């Protein structure tokens, strides 16, 4: 069974208590109103679930066989019964399995037409089968509850109870159908609760999707900030260096300009990859890039430990935090030395600069959010000998 089919089956089992008509087995969408693929199990076999419950129409069937009404009414009864079965099953498959019914999407006009025709078919059988026509009521109720709107559900429920109670208590021999009144009342409660749960589930799924989308946007913004901020900081530093070397060392200045060109190209590619969700620089690559940027600024870099001490997932988070920590050093620290320590479950970046001051900026906030998302803890504090100590631990 596919995941999609398994999910549908699980939802159906919740929404369809024993004894409920087949509409209660209709699969529910997430609220998007999308059509299922041609290979969907519900499209291929949904009619079977609807047809199974048709056995309860055996009561009007037997009543037709025993009816002593005029032949015209008997024929009309047979036509009404057959049409009811066809309309119900077709409406269940086409109107509900494909579109998700009216619970989370607006019902299609064809569903309203099918609902009206089902009522007409049931009424047509009354002269021939009498009170046995009440057997159609649970099917009509479920179709309204699961395939139309909440308003239609309440109106149909009220109408079903009134009509069934009137037949039971106001017609001769009506007490024979007391069990149907009990079924109608019970089904009303079941349909009300189950449709409410379905709607709540769809709403929760919608809110979850919105939250995931929002978090995805924040993640992209954070990645772009870290990537572009780091690159622009290094580019600015190299541009200043190239300007100073333009007269005294033209060849070195050209080399710095070439580095700037390469950095900007990498940044553009990085932004594209980030937006596409495929960027994942390794810790080793990031360490080499950060070391080069710091050394170009005249900062002495020492690395303690091996990148293999961290797992691949930890390395991914560590590479982003190392990038942002390096950017902060280049922008604000005025440091002379930077030490990077890598150990199992931790990454530490220490500089001997001016230290932290004031509220957290976007960079530190972004590092903290990234660490939290990865199940890690970020600590930014003053170093033991001045400067700043950035530590992420798992």
Automatic annotation (TrEMBL):
Keywords assigned by UniProt, alphabetized: Kinase, Membrane, Transferase, Transmembrane, Transmembrane helix, Two-component regulatory system
SUPFAM superfamilies xref list: ATPase domain of HSP90 chaperone/DNA topoisomerase II/histidine kinase
Gene3D superfamilies: 1.20.5.1930, Histidine kinase-like ATPase, C-terminal domain (3.30.565.10)
Single Gene Ontology MF annotation: phosphorelay sensor kinase activity
InterPro entries in the cross-refs: HATPase_C_sf, Sensor_HK_TwoCompSys, Sig_transdc_His_kin_sub3_dim/P
GO CC annotations on file: membrane
Taxonomy, superkingdom: Bacteria
Spans traversing the lipid bilayer: 45-65, 72-93, 113-140, 152-171, 177-199
One Pfam family this sequence matches: HisKA_3
Domain Signal transduction histidine kinase subgroup 3 dimerisation and phosphoacceptor residue range list: 217-282
This protein's name: Sensor histidine kinase
